[in-house]
Amino acid sequence: MIDRWADPFGVDTAAHFGLLEHDLKPKPAWTALVRLQRALLDGGAPDRAVAPLRATVAAGPADLRVLAFRRRDGTTTLALWRAVSQWDNQTLVETPAAPAAVRLQLSGGEAGGALSTDVVSGKRKRLPEGQEIALELTGSPVLVSGLR
Known about the structure:
By secondary structure, the protein is mainly β. It has two domains: 1-41, no CATH class; 44-147, Immunoglobulin-like (Sandwich), CATH 2.60.40. The protein contains one helix and ten strands. Strands 2-3-10-7-8 form a five-stranded antiparallel sheet, covered by helices on one side. Strands 1-6-9 form a three-stranded antiparallel sheet, with no helix packed on it.
């Protein structure tokens, strides 16, 4: 989890596999994992008596992936991401994923007050009232939390 030593010139690529720099400074991947943990873990088993949230993907790219996490307070958090490569193997250059519109339809649930969080950048946005969630996904996973 920690880089073995400082390698500012990138001579030894194996020295950069950690989630933390050699001096324990967090890398972006570490920060994203911490955000993900904080959003999904709430310290106990979910309340199984609560009816599960029903959501349907009304529109989205073919590479869209969605997971639902039920929390102890009765809310649901949706994790959305795209299974798309962001690396060009020919040029060895990062290639950001083009934005794609996603629409989720909630049946019996409410999006008002829910919060969307980009796991990589940390940007947060409060969702409007209603039973539809409209997002734009790039290559970063997005969490939609507080759904009822």
